[in-house]
Amino acid sequence: xxxxxxxxxxxxxxxxxxxxxxxxxGRAFSSYVMHWFRQAxxxxxxxxxxxxxxxxxxxxxxxxxxxxxISRDNAKNTVYLQMNSLKPEDTAVYFCAARAGDYIGNYxxxxxxxxxxxxxxxxxxx
Length: 126
Known about the structure:
By secondary structure, the protein is mainly β. The protein has strands at 2-7, 10-13, 18-26, 33-39, 46-51, 58-60, 68-73, 78-83, 92-99, 115-116, 120-125.
């Protein structure tokens, strides 16, 4: 069992930056591939980024590539999402997610996730 708590969300103007954090507790954090997803009102939850267990592999959705950066600190049991050049269409609840198994350098579906955080709201004003 892994418990995760996100923080760092808020209201920001378009073009601004935010850094999300996800602190995990429970079973060995480094044994999980970590992800960020987001869900806007009335839309399905969508993949944002993934990072391998050791942090060497990273993959991003096309919509955020070049603007967002995922990282992790296994000593602190924390995964981060640095979001730059934010756009109004980035407005959503952002969730961190943990998945056992191998790193897949590609999109991941919500159905494959083992554990979810509770989410943090990000609102980008125009």
